[in-house]
Amino acid sequence: MNFKMQLSGLNDFLGNAYGQETQFNSLLAGVGFERAQIDLLSNGPLEQLVSGFVTAIKEKLSSGGKGDHVFQVACRRYGLDGESPETPDAIAKKHSISAQYVQQLEEEALQKCRSKTTLNDLSKSLQQLAVAELSKIAPAPSKGYVSEKLFRLTNLQADTDLTRMDYTEKRAGLFERIQAELDALEAEYQPVFETAEQEITALTAEIKNDVLLRGESVQGGAYCAVYAPGRSTWDNDGMIKYAATHPDVLKFRKPGQASVTLRAAPGR
């Protein structure tokens, strides 16, 4: 196994899963390790740390109905086992499956790692692995060092709370001014809208009556008043009984009422 190849493959895998800026070191920083601690790990037990993290990835990807097929494809595509990565065609030929299915399994591996649950689990695993390795090669942080950070956190949180209070107060004041302006705007325009809607409703009714009287469709402006003659329906039961002995079944015909609908005119 070539460790440099494994680390390179892991970085490629992480980049494809989370974005090109995501590398193994950035994951370590993301779970709270300082630059000096990351340097210690990089210059010391990095191989064991990477191996343990790849094992954690395997455990997450191997769960589910497809067993460890998803991980095996990801492993060979990216060289997570420290061997040279393989193309989808090469993997497909080796396992007598289609290259398309290989790509499907690879994408499934990436999508699974992107899930919030998997990402949280992998972060916890990485943190535990790194803590275990650091405890072997470096002394634990002093109580005073941790206490100093707690004071910094206290001050930072207090400053943030004050800033948030200031923001909330200013935001509320801004909303009050905006709400007053909105209320004034509503009072100004609402009567105009109500009058316009009343006029539109009345004019629409007039147009429908006019078209019913004309008995034909009329187009004007952006609208077309479509005349539809009433449909004729039949009393089927009565017609069947009556038609047996009387040819004048039209007496059972029930003419419907004509209607008018307004539609957008063609080309508008």
Q: Into which percentage range does the β-strand content fall?
A: 5-15%
Order of helices and strands: HHHHHHHHHEEEHEE
Task: Provide mean pLDDT, rounded.
Answer: 89
Integer tally of domains:
3
Explain what the structure shows.
Helix content is 69%, strand content 8%. The protein has 268 residues and is mainly α. It folds into three domains: 3-140, no CATH class; 142-213; 215-264, no CATH class. The protein has a three-stranded antiparallel β-sheet with strand order 1-2-5, covered by helices on one side. It starts with a helix and ends with a strand.
Keywords:
268 residues; mainly alpha; 3 domains; 3-stranded antiparallel β-sheet
Give the helices and strands, then pairings.
Layout: H1 3-18, H2 24-30, H3 35-43, H4 46-61, H5 69-78, H6 88-95, H7 99-114, H8 116-137, H9 143-214, E1 218-220, E2 223-228, E3 232-234, H10 236-243, E4 253-255, E5 259-264
Antiparallel strand pairs: 1-2, 2-5, 3-4
Summarize the model shown:
This protein is mainly alpha-helical and 268 residues long. The chain is built from ten helices and five strands.
